[in-house]
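Annex B, item 7. Sequence and structure tokens for protein A, then protein B.
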Amino acid sequence: MRHIFATVLLLFLFPVAAQAHPAPFSYLDLDLQEEVIDGSVTVHVIDIAHELALDEPAILLDQGVLSSQYSQIGAILRQRLDIGAGELPPIEWKGAELLPDDDAIRLRFSIDSPAPPALEVKAHIFTYDPLHQTFVNIYEEGELRQQWIFAEGDGPRTHFAGTAAGIMAVIGTFLPSGVHHIMIGPDHILFLVGLMLLGGSLKRLAIIVTSFTIGHSVTLSLAATGVFIPPAAIIEPLIALTIVIVGADNLLRGEGKDLRAWLALFFGLIHGFGFAFVLREFGLPAGSLAWSLFSFNVGVEIGQLVIVLAVAGLLALIRRRNAALARQIATFGSLAVMAAGAYWFVDRVFFAGVG
């Protein structure tokens, strides 16, 4: 919704902004048809004039001059647009159109191929200007499905088609991403390890893991869909603090009431926001939002299950063979969990962004 508002606002201001060119931006429109991709690129004459080394941008608004420069402009823009990550035929230009009221020109093109279920797009058209942005609108059979804004430093984005093949592409992308994220997230792993250190029956461990799943699933959905997005500067230190508390609970609880399921549920809410920060970087497909959330969450659960089974299984084996050693592992493991969590907390509160 924010992208739509930004696009409408900039369209409204385009004629005014064109005079001094204070807001450098371009447009890329893609219409995914059944057998072909139709598209257009709208660019300001100041940007094109810079690339062509022309001193007077306004001369490009002359049809004769534009015609003489058409091939070179097309060659420049073709190099700056990556549509399909090299898997599609090259762009075929279909002509240029003057937009004198906007001090801009529009080049139309087609790609002689149906779009793949997962279409990767990267658009950095005028890199000489670090403030330049490219607005991308993706249509399917004329219906707007996706909008992006590419700024300096942004990586490629992927549009998933609203078809069965597109859904499978969503699952194939987001499920392994969920597994990968939890496997490379030492804070999430250490939190789970801390919950497992004191062991327990299979039923007890299942309740703990399920509680964590419920907690992070709720906030992952809220944050990923934009309903509620707390700042990372708050969430990341809180995630570290949850690790400290879990370790401390292991040491202080003794034979008292087992609170791990409640800690897993409550702290899972915090960890879910951390998962969402990663998920949002992908650019959630508007037409397959539920599938992307579901797939990413399933991936997280698979990775989580692998960690829990490995840690809980090993600790159970040690406990059966040497109960005293198992208690020592639980004690020193909890101390290590607390130390790591405290280190991350201090680092994220006082040294975030340093260096």
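Protein B:
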Amino acid sequence: MQWSGTTETGDGVTCREFTLQVQGRRVPGALWTPAAAARKCPLVLVGHGGSGHKKSPLVLDVALPLAGRHGIAVAAIDGPVHGARRAQFAEGLPVRDEFLALWKAGGSVDPMIADWRATIDALCGLPDIDAGAIAWKGISMGTAYGLPLLAAEPRIRAAVLGMWGLSFPNSERLAADAPKVGCGVLFQQKWDDELFTRESQIELFDRLGTRDKRLTVYMGGHKNPEGEQLQDILDFLTGRLIAQVRTR
């Protein structure tokens, strides 16, 4: 792990950017931690959306309150055609379209699993990270890559997924991996999602192998969580991670 810069956000949170080399790929990431942590921090891994990057609002909306108010570290890496993996930085709909084309062509699922597992290995070796209390947050593209990661990675003990369904091309991998997911899951669905049918999202939820799962539906289309949906994410992650720390 090579560190490339540190930023103080001004609300008691430190952001450190890093780079890993995984199977010949350069993997850029960021880690948010409490500026004055008195103990090892639980860790939330965040998979960003298809139009964003490791420091986009979808990530910061979770990273800043978790690290600043709850003492939970948060890490994110750029997706395969996102952020600092690109020759020229871009975000928004053009990047989303590139990701969707990549997904339909095969998706880069296994390389992303390898990248995330290498990231977990590196982060768990840090003195301020609690390797026994790790959770995942990833909706939309964060579910496309996160669900297969959960199926392969037993160190992740709880997860927020959703806003993805089996109606989308090349989602057979998710259908096959869903029964292997054993951690507790909060699955979020948008009732008027324009990318995925209602039925296909419910089907993906139903295939999850864990018995510890809940499905929550919110009105609206395919857009970043806010309001009640965002608060439910924060409450679920903090509740699960704090409970894990207390029971050890």
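Comment on protein B: DSSP finds seven helices and nine strands in the chain.
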